[in-house]
Amino acid sequence: MTLAILSALPEEQAGIAALLTDARIHDHAGRRYSCGQLHGQAVVLALSGIGKVAAASTAATLIERFGARGIVFTGVAGGLGDGVQVGDVVVATRYAQHDLDASPIFPRYEVPGYGRALFDCDAALSAQLAVAVQQCLAGGGAAWTAELGLPAPQMHQGLVVSGDRFVSSAAEVQALRSGLRAAGMDALAVEMEGAAVAQVCADHGLPFAAMRSISDRADDSAHLDFPRFIHTISSRYAQHIIGSL
Ligand code: ADE
């Protein structure tokens, strides 16, 4: 089975690319795909770029052209849930699109044609990820966050939401959370790709899992915290967590 490892940005995946052996590079439709081996396991690495359309297109190519039999997303996210702090790691259990609204024809957040808003992550692959995250946080993780003056990182598991917007104000976080709560959802983190990949994997009946390290709190300092985190820690998390799957 070829496992696909997908990220939006190179900084989110550099640590894994460094571990790839027998690497063969393919450029297709504006994306770079790196096929090879990770500790003897066949993998294909890809960078989607930012946003749901870019992520969906890349996921479809990974499946149809590169024979991916499952996709793991690794990247960063803004923390939304109480107690989800910068440096923590979220393993998604399910996904929704926070900016999808075809109401009043369909309930807010529901994906038209699917009869639901939520897409589950694969339980077995997510459990594997969670074990790898715990091992990483108990090992080097705390030292890395300490470099940024952050407390020891925690792991969280639950709903992650995606939308085509970088969330960067406390007011926006409040509006987003209250909209989700009105639909019975409480999200741990927000990012811009995962729900699209979850939907493509569901279409193909393939497993999907995602881990997101928290780069910012999606608040008024998110635009400062995001680059600081992505340049220092996110790739190290990816290397240790995905590299040990
Ligand atoms: N990815 C990382 N931080 C984010 C934020 N605040 N909003 C959307 N996507 C993000």
TrEMBL record:
CDD domains: MTAN (cd09008). Pfam families: PNP_UDP_1 (PF01048). Its EC number is 3.2.2.9. Signal peptide: none annotated. InterPro entries: MTA_SAH_Nsdase (IPR010049), Nucleoside_phosphorylase_d (IPR000845), Nucleoside_phosphorylase_sf (IPR035994). One of its GO terms (molecular function) is adenosylhomocysteine nucleosidase activity. The keyword Amino-acid biosynthesis applies. Residues 2-242 form the Nucleoside phosphorylase domain. Pathway: Amino-acid biosynthesis; L-methionine biosynthesis via salvage pathway; S-methyl-5-thio-alpha-D-ribose 1-phosphate from S-methyl-5'-thioadenosine (hydrolase route): step 1/2. Gene3D superfamilies: Nucleoside phosphorylase domain (3.40.50.1580). It comes from the Bacteria. Keywords: Amino-acid biosynthesis, Glycosidase, Hydrolase, Methionine biosynthesis. PANTHER family: 5'-METHYLTHIOADENOSINE/S-ADENOSYLHOMOCYSTEINE NUCLEOSIDASE (PTHR46832), 5'-METHYLTHIOADENOSINE_S-ADENOSYLHOMOCYSTEINE NUCLEOSIDASE (PTHR46832:SF1). This is adenosylhomocysteine nucleosidase. It comes from Comamonas sediminis.
